[in-house]
Amino acid sequence: MINRVALANVFNETLRPLNFRRRGDNWYRRGEEIYAIVNIQRSRWDDLCYINIGFSLVDRLYGDWIPEPKCLVRFRVEALNCVSCDTLSLLDEEKPIRMSEAERHSAIAAGIGVPVARTVGDIVDFAGLKRLLKSDMLDGGVFVHREISEMLD
Q: What is the pTM of this model?
């Protein structure tokens, strides 16, 4: 898997300009209506890491920050149709890829960092979250807590 620090650098470059703050391996933003978080999760069994995205309603928060597993809507980056399997394969350092580290970083930033930033950056209110969940941008694998699912109908 790509070095977690290198992946964190990609998210610093793409999420900080959108007013996301960093806490460990998490980038989060508390808006007026919606809380958004992007998380790099390390695997317990190997060197893999996963990219998780979560949203919650701000009036359900008990502070400025909550971890991604406590969000009302959660999914992995693989659920985004705008992130290809080929791009995700760039994260695997074990897989032979004929490109320099700088080229790999640029490809990951363009293929993962920018689409993630566009997705979470565009969600500033409940209507935006609802549009995302009803759009064709997501390809299954989305957890929606029953507390919010009733509000989405």
A: 0.92
